[in-house]
């Protein structure tokens, strides 16, 4: 077995041991197809108030500018589909935020993976990324054969749907590369038809500034009155386009205890959320991604959802 094959096999075995759903590898370089799409999306102001999306344009499209000397992008998926869902009479939280903030969980796993690689291979240069850096993670995951980008712009896999996080290691190692898979959305328009705010403006194109996740997490100003009664009772994030996707019937519950929710998150009904105190917020969401919207933000979202 040559060195590239040996290292590739080791990386994929270690990723599996650490609990990642799957691992794919692609050659680092400029993302030619994504460049005009990203430029057009930004020019059309579909990022709304997410001005950080305008930064590091070149680095978003070329990891060799982000990590000098890099040769390979190792893409990893980590399942977060929950064992139990919230009370039916509840304002809703996106499933990815049920447990501990995924940034901490995944970064810890990536550190272990990097350490294992250094122990096995010796000295090499690499950096780990979990969606907080200018990396087009879905594009790299698709390029690495882990799925295709669906009409709702999420990565989709025939075996596991779309309820997973995407992370990367960008390394200066020559490895064996995977090939992209074909698109299996076909003529289905379930996600487009179901989006409460019509954010999927055309197949494979989402206007981020109309997305419920954007409104409930990213937007710091008052919520626009024109969207009143269109949030489908989501108080943090939104899973509608994923929930209706036929491929997600193959989703299986995760096996990561850190993603298990606080019991109150599952038990609370609308009245409990309307009356939530800062103390209870801090208890339920102590290490959760929901902390990003802060107590005031969640209260704003809940108030917007309440029927007049």
TrEMBL record:
One of its GO terms (molecular function) is 4 iron, 4 sulfur cluster binding. Pathway: tRNA modification; tRNA-queuosine biosynthesis. Binds 2 [4Fe-4S] clusters per monomer. Keywords: 4Fe-4S, Cobalamin, Cobalt, Cytoplasm, Iron, Iron-sulfur, Metal-binding, Oxidoreductase, Queuosine biosynthesis, tRNA processing. It is found in: Cytoplasm. The keyword Iron-sulfur applies. It comes from the Bacteria. GO terms for cellular component: cytoplasm. One of its GO terms (biological process) is tRNA queuosine(34) biosynthetic process. Cob(II)alamin binds at residues 60, 131, 155, 166, 213, 238-239. It is an enzyme of class 1 (oxidoreductase). TRNA binds at residue 220. SUPFAM superfamilies: alpha-helical ferredoxin. Pfam families: Fer4_16, QueG_DUF1730. Its EC number is 1.17.99.6. Its cofactor is [4Fe-4S] cluster; cob(II)alamin. Gene3D superfamilies: 3.30.70.20. [4Fe-4S] cluster 2 binds at residues 195, 211, 238, 241. It catalyses: epoxyqueuosine(34) in tRNA + AH2 = queuosine(34) in tRNA + A + H2O. Catalyzes the conversion of epoxyqueuosine (oQ) to queuosine (Q), which is a hypermodified base found in the wobble positions of tRNA(Asp), tRNA(Asn), tRNA(His) and tRNA(Tyr). Belongs to the QueG family. Monomer. HAMAP family: QueG. This is Epoxyqueuosine reductase. It comes from Christiangramia salexigens.
């Amino acid at each position: 077995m040559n060195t590239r094959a040996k290292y590739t096999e080791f990386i994929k075995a270690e990723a599996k041991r650490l609990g990642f759903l799957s691992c794919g590898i692609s050659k680092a370089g400029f993302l030619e197809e994504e460049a005009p799409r990203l430029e057009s999306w930004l020019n059309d102001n579909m990022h709304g108030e997410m001005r950080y999306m305008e930064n590091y344009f070149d680095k978003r499209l070329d990891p060799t500018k982000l990590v000098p000397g890099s040769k390979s992008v190792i893409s990893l998926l980590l399942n977060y589909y929950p064992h139990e869902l919230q009370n039916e009479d509840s304002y809703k939280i996106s499933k990815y935020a049920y447990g501990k903030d995924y940034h901490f969980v995944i970064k810890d796993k990536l550190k272990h993976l990097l350490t294992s690689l250094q122990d096995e291979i010796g000295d090499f240069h690499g950096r780990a990324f979990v969606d907080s850096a200018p990396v087009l993670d879905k594009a790299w995951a698709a390029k690495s054969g882990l799925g295709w980008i669906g009409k709702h712009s999420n990565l989709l896999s025939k075996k596991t749907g779309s309820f997973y996080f995407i992370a990367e290691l960008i390394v200066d190692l020559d490895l064996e590369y995977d090939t992209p898979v074909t698109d299996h959305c076909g003529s289905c328009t379930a996600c487009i038809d179901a989006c409460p705010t019509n954010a999927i403006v055309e197949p494979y194109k989402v206007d981020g500034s109309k997305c419920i996740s954007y409104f409930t997490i990213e937007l710091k100003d008052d919520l626009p009155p024109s969207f009143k009664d269109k949030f489908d009772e989501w108080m943090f994030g939104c899973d509608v386009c994923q929930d209706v996707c036929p491929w997600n019937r193959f989703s299986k519950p995760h096996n990561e205890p850190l993603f298990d929710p606080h019991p109150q998150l599952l038990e609370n009904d609308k009245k409990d959320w309307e009356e939530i105190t800062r103390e209870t917020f801090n208890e339920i969401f102590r290490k959760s991604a929901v902390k990003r919207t802060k107590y005031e933000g969640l209260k704003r979202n809940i108030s917007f959802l309440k029927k007049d």
